[in-house]
Amino acid sequence: MRNLVIEPTSKTPKVILNADLGIFEITGRSIPEDAIGFYRKVLDWLEEYSKSPLGETIFKFQLEYFNTSSSKCLLDIFRKLERMHKNGHKVSIRWHYDSDDEDMAETGQDYQALLDVPFELVPV
Amino acid sequence: MQLNNIIFVYQGEVTADLVSSILQMVENKLEGEGEDRKVKKRVFNVMVECLQNVYHHLDALPPTDPNNPIRDKTALLMIGREEKDYYIITGNHVQNDRIPDLKSRLDRINRASKEELKQLYQEVLTGTGFSEKGTAGLGMIDIARKSGQRLGYDFHPVSDKYSFFSLEARVSRIPEK
Questions:
Q1: Residues with Cβ < 8 Å from A76, sequence gap 6 or more?
Q2: What's the whole-number mean pLDDT along residues A14-40?
Q3: In Å, how far is A71's CA from the nearest CA of chain B?
Q4: Cross-chain Cβ contact A75/B126 below 8 Å
Q5: What's the pLDDT tens digit per position in B115-165?
Q6: For testing the chain B interface, which of A12, A29, A30, A68 should be mutated: the one with the most B CBs within 10 Å?
Q7: CATH assignment of A26-123?
Q8: How many structural domains comprise chain B?
Q9: For labelling alongside A18, which of A2, A7, A68, B133 has CA 20 to 30 A away?
Q10: Domain spans, chain A
């Protein structure tokens, strides 16, 4: 399937979804006014990908900032990954955060508690 | 409030571009003054939510009636620094019939403990909390969590239809621990 790469802006993160190389990443800051508009492409891509995923999918998130409208979209992405996991695919989420950023660690823990999919907190 | 504590103040219409410019300007300012990284991040986070709250609210208002003496799409944005806290103040017009709901939500947030705020955040995030179209509900809870202090607010009546709603969020300059 076609890869999805979105270059970062001052309000949106870098997105790399590459099924050929097995790279799934969202990094940077995510503070757009219209988060739903931004993440629609990501969700559509994941929907398509989830029909025939790789043997293992490791999705990396490394966000410096995100706003609350992005937080709902992130949950939608996690739910899609959770569904793949429940369907028997090997899926894990890696939540990277700045090791002295307690807020981002806590947000990761919040998501972890809401989800039934391997969700690893990775301080960097 | 001393005038020299103000980092930024704006009154006028709020566009997405304006929000971007303010965020960038204040971020550079915080960066330049060597503020503690954790504090800087919190201030930035709270600022994003406060400004976008106002932006979304004004954006959702119907077009201004030219006969309306109240410039209802005009907002006030102010960011400043005191000895102990950064403060972020926003002000905008709200229709009077929205006040009871807003007030009860703010009071609920202000009464909540840290743990209760976390729970409330998760409830709203997953859609099981108090019903709220859009994201405004989550925004206020997030502001309160990052602020760690009570949100100050006021509704000042302007006409039989409108009040001026001001919201003040504070972020401590003294890092925890």
A1: A39, A43
A2: 95
A3: 8
A4: yes
A5: 999 999 998 888 854 444 444 478 999 999 999 999 999 999 998 888 999
A6: A68
A7: 3.30.750
A8: 1
A9: A68
A10: 26-123
- pLDDT, tens only, B47-76: 999 999 999 888 777 776 777 766 777 899
What would the two tokens of residue B43 be? 């201030």
Calculate how close chain A gets to B114, using CA atoms only, in Å.
Answer: 12
Summarize pLDDT for A93-104 with one digit per residue, the tens.
999 999 988 889
Give the closest of B45, B134, B135 to A65, CB-based.
Answer: B45
The answer to whether the CB atoms of A103 and B122 lie below 8 A apart is no
For B95, the enclosing helix (H) or strand (E) is strand B85-95
Residue A108 and residue A99 in contact, taking contact as beta carbons nearer than 8 Å = no
CA distance readout (Å), B69 to A116, B42, B66, B93, B166: 54, 37, 8, 12, 20
- Domain containing residue B53: CATH number: 3.30.565.10
pLDDT score of A114: 93
pLDDT of residue B2: 52
